[in-house]
Fold:
Amino acid sequence: MKVLVLGSGAREHALVRALTHDPTVDAVIAAPGNPGTDALALNVPVDAADPDAVLELARRHAVDLVVIGPEAPLVAGVADTLRRAGVRCFGPSADAARLEGSKAYAKEVMAAAGVPTGLARVCTSEDELAEALDAFGAPHVVKDDGLAAGKGVVVTEEREVAMAHGRACLAKGDDARVVIEEFLDGPEASLFCICDGTRVVALDLAQDFKRIFDGDEGPNTGGMGAYSPLDWAPEGLADDVVARVAQPVVDEMARRGTPFVGVLYVGLALTSAGPRVIEFNVRFGDPETQSVLARLDSPLGVLLAAAADGGLSDLEPLRWSAESAVTVVLSAEGYPSSPVTGVGIDGLEDLAASDLAEHVHVLHAGTRIVAEGDLPQLVSSGGRVLSVVALGDDLAQARTRAYEAVERIDFPGSHHRTDIALRASRHEIRLP
Structure:
């Protein structure tokens, strides 16, 4: 099987890496890919959000499966174009992708499917925004209704900060909307649900870290780290979420004539009243994917092809490593507001040849190669630049290995959180 992976981030690097370990996959193409995927696959330039360009690429390389990584190509209808042309595709249609493309639509579907979630109001004016903030009270949860690359949410105790974010969301256009939600207590968890239009198979749980600084301080980012599994989560949580959330949503989407094929990312708050859905995404989350796929022993290509074919009912139960995985994201100086790019990165080759290489791998996100004299130089090209993924017998060992690897990477001005999975490794996470 020849697989085309669309995207250029660490999530796509993780997908490419997992697919190359699948014995049923003969070749992987990454489009456009990054310097990390270039070492494992054939990188091909493409505008991943251009349906016709992606279809031409898939036909030119006679691929057997297209896996869509980012949200933008999904909302742009790339999956629709591929399926109409008879190209097997893993990723939802543009209509189904509205579960991520519109927070208001997601709330509507949740209500119809009876999914447990927080109360919410959709606001189209500043007066409605102010009224909703006062009705729910602090902490204020303010969400851009549309796509925002993981950075469209503000959670704050300060009303004026909430108002400012809401105003910015409403200023995006005449049809702009902002969603105000009640704050949900309890620790958060992420669950990837693989869907084939009628059936659901859950991957293992993970937890990510959205804030830029230790102790969950500072602004939201696309994600500064993650770990898996969640030893503190209630037994059977994944099965419960499939039964109460993912399967009802898949059934509701089928009823609406928009069957959901792809990843339904369920962001959860484990509240005192039980699990509640914070949000849906319609693709693998970053950086949780990096940790989850590092532990997946089953062949990823077989799983994704089965979902694309509507054949999850014939799939054998997934196999998982007993090890724990911790992912630490190295971000550029100035991220998330104004990341500094073009900074040289060294030490990756030495790390790959070191004693840590058996347990650690580095995934590229915001990187590119430039010529420096007669030699190529890896430099930063975005905000989140590298994901360092480590495996260990437990979270403590995985953490130690991850941070040892981080220290061996020479990336001037870079920033990373030092507390990824720390509380979980100390068994300090408690359910309300």
Q: What stands out?
A: Residues 120-181 form a domain with the Dna Ligase; domain 1 fold (CATH 3.30.1490.20).
